[in-house]
Amino acid sequence: MQLTAGCRKLFCMRPATRAVHAGERLAPAGWKSVTTPIYPSATYIYEDIATLERVAGGEENGYMYSRYAHPTGHALELAVAALEAGEDEAAAPACVSFASGMAALHAAILASGLQAGDAILCSQDVYGATIGLLRNLFTPLGVRIELASLSQPAAWPEQFAAARPRLVLVETLSNPLLRVPDLEALAAAAHAAGARLLVDSTFATPLLCRPLELGADFVVHSATKFLAGHGDVLGGVALAREPETAGLELQRKLAGGVLGPFEAWMILRGLKTLPLRLERQCRTALELAHWLAAHPAIERVHYPGLESHPDHAIARRQFPAGQFGGILSFELGGAGRERVYRFFNALRIVLPATSLGDVQSLALYPAASSHRDLSPKQRREAGIGDNLVRLSCGIEAVEDLREDLERALTVIG
């Protein structure tokens, strides 16, 4: 292989110097790697300091310090933004990656421009840690948190008038009861009240719903879940259009919740199979929801693909035909914690784990995990009973999953 001029210069240097610099900063040779490389560099250099100064000042594209941005993370951000843009490339939003979904959510809330004395109107049907974030980090800063059911548009005028929110926060598919808000109508109501709308779309992914197209100002994903899909990496992304984008980038730059290059590469790798995985997971979830709804041991199934679900009509309008997500939840008839634990312990294929969206099917007990920080009264008000189980469908054969669930249901009687 022909040596570049830079490589030849190294041979004039001492071994200690060569050990540090050999193999780095190779000049392009007309080829490109098939997959995005991992760039584990903290800093970046240029041929002259003037170029570095232009990059630092935003006058020229490039990288200077990985807390600001790095090539592997940028590749992931472009991929997620392309999915959120749908078929309209010109409408692609900006995507900013973070070290976790909670870091992305935290940054998006701050980027909305909240100040002391402002209020957040948050759906009560959200992830328990989201409520914990609002109460433990934002309440002490003087931000008022108002929880409400946002599933009834007729109640919005009164709720908005009472809360006077600066920010409205909902989930595309709520965790764990799978409620589906009418995002287009909610965005219009929020904007009319002078508020921004932030949507956590982790459960839906950009393949089922693109909230920015429906009027949302911010959308966040825990990339740990469906986007990565293999249960082996933590990460999050937040997306917005101008002028909100600058706020997201500023939060990452100053607070430092940066997604590392290795994690970015793993999420980008997982993203390539998202359409295949999600199609299978949606199909499995719908089949299991119908089967469980007819099972004598099950009191109730929560899944928007069922006609019995209160938001079925909205889901049919807001999601692609026949696809309602890969998550469902169900209530074990007459069960308390002891019987629920026996059910979990009897599972052999479905894994009792505190995550979702993986290729493996995962079951979670909300009262003891995702919503354990809420008081029993708060859980009851949110409709989360001690007999509720959340199931994240993987890509296993649906027949095996059905047999595993049947065996566990038989054990508890």
In short:
The protein has 413 residues and is an alpha/beta fold. The chain is built from 16 helices and twelve strands. It starts with a helix and ends with a helix.
Task: Kindly describe this structure.
It is a single chain. With 413 residues, the protein is of the alpha/beta class. It folds into 3 domains: 1-31, no CATH class; 71-271, Type I PLP-dependent aspartate aminotransferase-like (Major domain) (Aspartate Aminotransferase, domain 2, 3-Layer(aba) Sandwich), CATH 3.40.640; 274-412, Aspartate Aminotransferase, domain 1 (Alpha-Beta Complex). The protein is built from 16 helices and 12 strands. It has helices at residues 5-10, 15-21, 49-56, 71-84, 101-111, 128-138, 156-163, 183-192, 205-208, 244-255, 261-271, 274-293, 312-318, 337-346, 376-381, 398-412; strands spanning 94-98, 119-123, 144-148, 167-171, 196-200, 218-222, 236-240, 298-302, 327-332, 351-352, 362-364, 388-392. A 7-stranded mixed beta sheet has the order 1-7-6-5-4-2-3, with helices on both faces. Helix 14 crosses helix 16 (398-412). The protein is globular and about 80 Å long. The termini are far apart. The model has no long low-confidence stretch (mean pLDDT 92).
